[in-house]
Amino acid sequence: MNFNPQISNLPIYEAGKPIELVIREFGINPKDIIKLASNENPLGCSPLALEAMEKSIKSANLYPDDSYYELKESLANLYMVNSKNIVIGSGSDQVIEFIMHAKLDPNKAILSAGVTFAMYGIYAQHIGAKIYKTTSPNHDLNELKALYNQHKNEIKVIFLCLPNNPLGECLDASEVYEFISGVDSDTLVVIDGAYMEFAKFKDNKKAINPKDIVLLSNAIYLGTFSKAYGLGGMRVGYGIANELIINGVSKLRAPFNITTPSLAAAIAAIKDQNFIDQTLQNNLKEMSIYEKFAQDNHIEFIPSYTNFITFVFDNNKNSTKICDNLLRKGIILRNLQSYGLNAIRITIGTKEQNIKVLEALKKEI
């Protein structure tokens, strides 16, 4: 069987190890497993979202409202934009896929930070497009500008992951808007705001407002219900941009691309600001405990504006060995060796989870 040549060397994206795998491989009681590898919300999701999902199951035989009218209106009110400025995806990564197919071909290219969300490069390879990355792992704007100017005729999509996954760093909004102003009108700048709720709660200088993005001719903001809203299993994301961009990427959306329970959950989740506040407060408080642990144990860490923290080890420690040893104890963390980093990414959990993780980690370092 022959396949398109551009996928011959394409890696299969490896998500964080599921709890079920740890149960099968190591025979650990599910109650004793702590999964802090996929940046899921440790508090679960809004009770309103759970209730809405349960009610929606009764209509499982019916397709959802494909206009997504109520969800778009809720997002429009939240961000003070028009519903015509919104496209809905099965996770924000599906909107990324729409963008790639709308803007790229084998003669064009994407640009991103050196270490960032792996799916940007994978989706580009689906199409056979080129990939330009900075030598710096984080968002070095000077290097991004230089690469863009050098390859301006090829680069048609620029990704700014703000805050950045898997590192956690984040640019100030003013820097972002200045950068976008130097990009031509036919190159689309994608602001991936999957973790933006955490960033703007910690430091308002990081806040990218979608209502500002819709005023631009060459930018789109991506958001998701998988992180702060705790609906990773429901797969709901969105893009917000001017109407011309939204109309273009919407042509690639298949009908009914999110489920009836997913739609109900997302609509209800927006209404529960108390749950979001609890999530953000828990994250900021518990993040400080990880930072102190790193300082006390002389571990380098990247100051994070997300719901995770990245510990970077020197040559005396090996992130693969650390993650494997902890996995056998039922603690699932994300090893970043696949990104070329001797580092681990740890989702910020509940107080009880974090105490157990740090006690186990202390024995490994």
TrEMBL record:
Catalytic activity line of the entry: L-histidinol phosphate + 2-oxoglutarate = 3-(imidazol-4-yl)-2-oxopropyl phosphate + L-glutamate
Modified positions (N6-(pyridoxal phosphate)lysine) in chain numbering: 227
Pathway: Amino-acid biosynthesis; L-histidine biosynthesis; L-histidine from 5-phospho-alpha-D-ribose 1-diphosphate: step 7/9
EC annotation from Swiss-Prot or TrEMBL: 2.6.1.9
Cofactor requirement: pyridoxal 5'-phosphate
Keyword Amino-acid biosynthesis attributed: yes
Pfam families from the UniProt entry: Aminotran_1_2 (PF00155)
Enzyme class at the top of the EC tree: transferase
Keyword terms: Amino-acid biosynthesis, Aminotransferase, Histidine biosynthesis, Pyridoxal phosphate, Transferase
Molecular function as annotated in GO: histidinol-phosphate transaminase activity
InterPro entries: Aminotrans_II_pyridoxalP_BS (IPR001917), Aminotransferase_I/II_large (IPR004839), HisP_aminotrans (IPR005861), HistidinolP_aminotransfase (IPR050106), PyrdxlP-dep_Trfase (IPR015424), PyrdxlP-dep_Trfase_major (IPR015421), PyrdxlP-dep_Trfase_small (IPR015422)
HAMAP family cross-referenced by the UniProt entry: HisC_aminotrans_2
Protein name: Histidinol-phosphate aminotransferase
Organism of this sequence: Campylobacter lanienae
Gene field: hisC
